[in-house]
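Changelog-adjacent note: as of this version, every example in the card shows the full chain rather than a window. The one below runs 356 residues end to end.
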Amino acid sequence: MSSGSEPGRPGRGPSRARALIGLAILATLLASCGGGNGDSRPATWTVRFSHVLSTGSEFHLMAERFRDLMDERTGGRFRVVIYPSGQLGGERVAFEQIQAGAVQVAITGTPVLSGWVPESQVFDLPFLFETRDHGLRVMQGAIGDWWRDLLLERTGVRSLGFLDYGFRHVYNRRGPVETPADLAGLKLRVLQNATYLAAYSALGVQATPMNYGEVYSALQQGVIDGGEANAIGFVSSRLHEVAKFYSFTSITYNPITLLVNEPFYRSLPPDVRELVDRSAADALAYQSEVARRMEADAIEEMRANDVEISRPDLAPFAPAVRPRIWDELAARLPDGEALIARLVAEGAPALEGRSQ
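Full-length structure tokens:
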């Protein structure tokens, strides 16, 4: 989503990352066994894989595909144990665990990672991408590679690529969102991310950060009116049971990334690292294929459960956030204006000529 919880706390500098990497080296040694100190047995590895969505989600199906491919390709020597539904903590906690080496693999959204890499917020700009395919293409290109290098440098965590999550859309208990006026006054659970909060506030929303696991009960009790998520997350988390209006607002595109602890990754033999890269790429391609089917199924599930679906004209929404929110982010980030210009010029040519 980012599906999950609050972003990491800012201010995690290189010294902090180096300390965590030191801890990770010890955890890496404990995570693998065999093949050393004269032991003739083949090396084996047990890997903890954390994500925050349910076992019925496309995240979990991708994790299972990665697990099965690594098991098959290493003859059972690389064992992946999956912890879904935030069992090991929300996305912020999972990222801290992966830095420390307590978790080797995890799925996390770039909005959460902006606590460590503030430049990540350029991907959170409202109405940045025209379509879901457009967003995925950009993240899989040069700008995505730049961000992955920055993440590794700042945090000691490697991104193996991006999932196909798509846009976050508004759902609520009160009524369909057809115009910007329909958002005014809605109390929506929004990711705790400065750009998200600013964008939704500019549209008149009472933007309310909240742990993802609390959203269902908060909707039931009327603590919030709704939130924002993709169609699959809305249905797989059963939010359609308590919020009967879903609107394809496409305000924010949500990059989600597959992460691996770098010291663990580097400790693997070159042939096993190659298998990790190949299996991750295959699992990500599978996730994209599955996610498109699951989105169509989720929409049918909404209709079967009397959820009113609306597809508003987005043109009237953009002036509330562009250029204001874009300019505010440019001022907050070092060289922010140049960074956003690079994103538009190199990564998002479809934006040329679009209304500012």
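Structural remarks: Residues 138 and 347 are 5 Å apart (CA to CA).
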